[in-house]
């Protein structure tokens, strides 16, 4: 029988997660603390550098590993490794490294279709020095990546994913800020969940006021370590920080190093133990892969402890070897946890 009622809107979700971030090629090498001192590097932090400094450091570094990277890109690779459906939005140049980045992402099953940009700005690269204590020091030349604008945000792509994941490292230019805000609004208009990763303590210091504003109306889920979260709310105590973030967002996933992680959901505080490892080789990508497990779990209907457990396992895998991406398929892990 005919009816004048408007049919309910169908959920056209075809992806688990879309990530937005700096599209970067990573160069990783193991160095001693003397290298850090000799080149006056800020150990354990991410420092933005110009093209000349990038050339100098690259020439001084010993041979290492070169692969496509970037925080949100690593997370999307992790989601794909779990067997999830992931896509990425970032800006590369129409150059050799840009094509390397595109090929790497597609090879591991992440959709990436933003065309390379011709011009003087190169594809971004991050020079990562890994010291014997497994700390990573990042020196990044952002090149074209920081010029991501609303023109590169595919609204249909954003709306097609259950979760939008935004990288804090990208929040350094007005163009990129506009693109992220635009994508967040598109995701919310489609009824999707929006996540923000705090990325780095220095990022928090630079962008605290703007990020606190984002939390009030654009962000549903926060990812960060305890130090970053305390810095965001300018408190010294993790409990104070978790209470503060619980009042602003639906969920927060807080990594605690060797103590594992904590899920903050309203008044609930769920502790997840860290996986035991024989040795920590390189902490690069630990937070990125933790987020990948959580996002994959949430997209597949996992409860909060199981989603955080997936994150913990992914983080443990990536810090057991050099490089910011998993050496094994994480899909077997997902089956063992989610059934």
How would you explain this protein's 3D organization?
- The structure is a single chain.
- With 339 residues, the protein is an alpha/beta fold.
- The chain has 12 helices and 14 strands.
- The strands form 2 sheets. Strands 6-5-1-9-10-11-12-13-14 form a 9-stranded mixed β-sheet, sandwiched between helices. Strands 3-8-7-2-4 form a 5-stranded mixed β-sheet.
- Mean pLDDT is 91; it is low at 1-10.
Summarize the structure.
The protein has helices at residues 33-38, 51-60, 71-81, 96-107, 155-159, 174-189, 201-217, 226-233, 238-246, 286-299, 304-318, 331-338; strands at 15-20, 24-30, 46-48, 65-69, 86-89, 110-111, 124-130, 136-141, 161-167, 193-197, 221-225, 251-255, 261-265, 268-272. With 339 residues, it is of the alpha/beta class. 48% of the residues are buried.
Topology (elements, then pairings):
Blueprint: E1 15-20, E2 24-30, H1 33-38, E3 46-48, H2 51-60, E4 65-69, H3 71-81, E5 86-89, H4 96-107, E6 110-111, E7 124-130, E8 136-141, H5 155-159, E9 161-167, H6 174-189, E10 193-197, H7 201-217, E11 221-225, H8 226-233, H9 238-246, E12 251-255, E13 261-265, E14 268-272, H10 286-299, H11 304-318, H12 331-338
Parallel strand pairs: 1-5, 1-9, 2-7, 3-8, 5-6, 9-10, 10-11, 11-12
Antiparallel strand pairs: 2-4, 7-8, 12-13, 13-14
Helix pairs in contact: 3-10, 7-8, 8-9, 10-11, 11-12
Please give the alpha-carbon distance between the first and last residues: 43 Å
Counted by DSSP, the helix tally is 12
* CATH homologous superfamily grouping of the domain at 15-20 and 71-96 and 107-116 and 147-338: Ribokinase
Order of helices and strands: EEHEHEHEHEEEHEHEHEHHEEEHHH
DSSP E strands, number? 14
The largest beta-sheet arranges its strands as 6-5-1-9-10-11-12-13-14
Helix/strand class: alpha/beta
Low-pLDDT stretches? 1-10
The proportion of residues forming helix, as a percent range, comes to 25-40%
Question: What is Rg?
Answer: 19 Å
CATH class value of the domain at 15-20 and 71-96 and 107-116 and 147-338: Alpha Beta
């Amino acid at each position: 029988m005919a009816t004048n009622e408007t049919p309910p809107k169908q959920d056209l979700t075809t992806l688990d997660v879309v990530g937005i971030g700096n599209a970067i090629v990573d160069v990783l090498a193991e160095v001693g603390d003397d290298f850090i001192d000799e080149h006056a590097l800020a150990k354990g932090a991410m420092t933005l550098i110009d093209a000349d400094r990038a050339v100098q450091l690259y020439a001084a570094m010993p041979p290492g590993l070169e692969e496509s990277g970037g925080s949100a890109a690593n997370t999307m690779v992790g989601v794909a490794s779990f067997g999830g459906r992931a896509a990425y939005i970032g800006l590369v140049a129409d150059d050799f490294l840009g094509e390397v980045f595109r090929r790497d992402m597609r090879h591991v099953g992440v959709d990436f279709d933003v065309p390379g940009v011709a011009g003087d700005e190169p594809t971004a690269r991050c020079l990562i020095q890994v010291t014997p204590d497994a700390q990573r020091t990042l020196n990044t030349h952002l090149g074209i990546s920081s010029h991501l604008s609303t023109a590169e945000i595919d609204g249909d792509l954003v709306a097609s994913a259950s979760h939008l994941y935004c990288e804090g490292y990208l929040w350094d230019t007005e163009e990129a800020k506009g693109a992220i805000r635009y994508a967040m609004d598109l995701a919310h208009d489609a009824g999707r969940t929006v996540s923000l990763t705090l990325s780095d303590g220095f990022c928090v210091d630079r962008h605290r006021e703007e990020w606190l504003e984002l939390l009030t109306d654009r962000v549903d889920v926060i990812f960060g370590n305890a130090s970053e979260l305390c810095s965001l709310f300018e408190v010294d105590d993790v409990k104070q920080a978790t209470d503060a973030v619980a009042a602003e967002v639906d969920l927060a996933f807080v990594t605690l190093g060797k103590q594992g992680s904590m899920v903050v959901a309203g008044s609930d505080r769920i502790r997840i133990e860290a996986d035991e490892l024989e040795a920590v080789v390189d902490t690069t990508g630990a937070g990125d892969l933790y987020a990948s497990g959580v996002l994959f779990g949430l997209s597949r209907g996992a409860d909060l402890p199981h989603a955080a457990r997936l994150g913990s396992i992914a983080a443990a895998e990536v810090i057991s070897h050099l490089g910011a991406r998993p050496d094994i398929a994480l899909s077997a892990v997902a089956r063992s946890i989610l059934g």
